[in-house]
């Protein structure tokens, strides 16, 4: 499922200067930028940039960035769920995952995460998708922020709500393994009822039906 990617851009004032929030960024434009070395929550910055570049080339892939000049200080990815996750089992063309969202520490608290999510949902094409995110506490930067698990969860929920994502219950084993973990989703206004029901079956795949 592929749509024409409508490009959006916004400028955010931060204590560290103006930051441009924009996307979806095309691969040829992303290739002219470089990642800040502190964007290393998932893998070293250079390797992460290579991974993001590959996502940008996918038909469904969407990359939103925060940048100062050509320096990327934050990014968000949208891509089909990992084939090893239950969310891919339905082979739903209209279900994509907010796979990663990262902002360097110097810009934490400047609202860049919310700004990226708001901008990503400006695209009318997103009304055709169910957008999900799976939040696991072991991915959270608890040490650097000094927040408790529950305070960090509140921060994450508020940020996701800026993009219209809401809490959804699920029996997924990984999410259910800790009460702070959660599934959040945004169901686009043009998503059909059959797709919503299929999403419900994925959420409760372990439920025995009689």
Can you describe this structure?
- This protein is of the alpha+beta class.
- It has one domain (about 10-205): Aminopeptidase, CATH 3.40.630.
- It has 7 helices and 9 strands.
- The protein has helices at about 25-30, 45-55, 110-120, 140-145, 150-160, 175, 195-205, and strands spanning about 10-15, 15-25, 35, 60-70, 70-80, 95-105, 130-135, 165-170, 180-185.
- The longest helix has 14 residues, at about 150-160.
- The model has no long low-confidence stretch (mean pLDDT about 90).
- InterPro entries: AcuA, Acyl_CoA_acyltransferase, GNAT_dom.
Features of this protein?
single chain; 210 residues; alpha+beta; Aminopeptidase; nine-stranded mixed beta sheet; 9 strands; globular; acetoin dehydrogenase (NAD+) activity; AcuA; Acetoin utilization protein AcuA; GNAT_dom
Brief summary of the model shown:
This protein has 210 residues and is of the alpha+beta class. The protein has seven helices and nine strands, in the order ββαβαβββαβααβαβα.
Write the layout of secondary structure elements.
Elements (H helix, E strand, L loop, with lengths): L7 E7 L2 E7 L3 H4 L3 E2 L9 H13 L4 E7 L2 E9 L15 E9 L8 H9 L9 E6 L6 H4 L3 H14 L3 E3 L4 H4 L5 E6 L5 H11 L7
Parallel strand pairs: 3-5, 6-7
Antiparallel strand pairs: 1-2, 2-4, 4-5, 5-6, 7-9, 8-9
